[in-house]
Amino acid sequence: MPFLVFGVNHKTAPLHVREKLAINSEQLAETLRDLKLQESISEAVLLSTCNRTEVYCYSEECAERPHQQGIEWLQSFYNLAASDLKPYLFSFQEDDAVRHLLRVACGLDSMVLGEPQILGQLKDAYRVACDTGTVSKMLNKLMQHTFSVAKQVRTDTAIGSSPVSVAFAAVRLAQQVFGEFDDKTALMIGAGDTIELAAQHLYDNGLGRMIVANRSIDRAQVLASRFNGFAIPLKELPDHLADADILVSSTASQLPILGKGAVERALRKRKHKPIFMVDIAVPRDIEPEIGKLDDVYLYTVDDLHSVIKENQRSRQTAALQAEDIILAETRHFMDWVQSLDTVATIKAFRKSIQASQEELVRKAIQHLTKGEHPEKVMEALARGLMQKFTHTPTVVLREVNESRRDELQKALRDLFDL
After folding, report:
1. Residues 6+ apart with CB under 8 A from 142
2. Calpha distance 99→109 (Å, rounded)
3. Is residue 57 classed as helix, strand or coil in its secondary structure?
4. Exposed, middle or buried, 334 (CB in 10 Å: 0-12/13-18/19+)?
5. What's the pLDDT tens digit per position in 230-257?
6. For the chain, does the N or the C end have fewer beta carbons within 10 angstroms?
7. C-alpha angle 89/92/93, rounded to 5°?
8. Which DSSP string do the residues of 85-147 spell out, in sequence order?
9. Which one of the listed residues 50, 57, 62, 106 is annotated catalytic?
10. Are 256 and 287 within 8 A, CB to CB?
11. Closest CA to 66 of 132, 3, 144, 145
């Protein structure tokens, strides 16, 4: 009963390959239904993010056929030649597949060690698979186990307690100043990757309102629309500065774009409510003198890197503890899987014995009906049961090769306490 994982991720494939296999949320259900048409794949969950497109499968067949069908499906569904896909594919089976899934859920396989977003993305992928009908007993059990282990890792280690990206560190520092963000306005200056990631973190933490300022208003509008914000051209920045409780800036400007005078005017208009500022740009976007103003909390990229460096060490230590938990929980889950085989074997054994018993009892009743002596009928019944019970083991022990005979004899002695 193999578990399988296959696909591409940031460790195996460059961005231009991952882009070809990316699936948006609207396409996910349809893609899962197409995958489920592969007859050897019994259950499936599909996870697609910017860093990975991975298929988690369960099959009732041996691993080779579903693995091959899964790879062929990837090539066919995405219309890719084998030579374009094969160099970037990875695959795991059984214990390794389970362990990989647990590592993904716990953020140990992420670009940013211990990042929490991947667990939510995995839960969303599982929910879609449930709604689409591509999961049943085995993947349900595995996914619930996975979510439980991820929670344990978050609870028992410090893997997620410290920010390890500039954007995340900035948002975490803002939380220390303000606590909650639901009534706060963030002014994002720039529209590059770091600003986008900081905006995502703020949005995920319940930000009330967002303004995006950028030289290219079109780019600002694209970014703002993702987070229910609105865009302004950079020249209108002074008009909106007083609205900002949180300001994050990262542009390519060679000169500061925010001066002390503009911030002083904004603070007066705000009646000196504090502003939290993060200048991620190099060279700096915000004049250093602004940090000396009362009611301004100004951090530079160097301030954040000192936080990040220390927190990376903390997360690496926590990751070692998390790996131990994952190894133990992988074994625990696979023990449960193996127990299903034992239960099935016991059921088959009992069913076989019961069938023999019913056949011999039926014959015994027929003999009694014909008037035969009950004692002889009972002796024949007992003798028949013994022969049925011992015939196959006796034949196997006599005919098995010598290398297995000792093993089977020991098993027989253990099973029947001989």
Report:
1. 3, 56, 58, 98, 101, 333
2. 11
3. strand
4. middle
5. 999 999 999 999 999 999 999 988 889 9
6. C
7. 145
8. HGGG-EEEEHHHHHHHHHHHHTTTTSSSTT-SHHHHHHHHHHHHHHHHT---HHHHHHHHHHH
9. 50
10. yes
11. 3
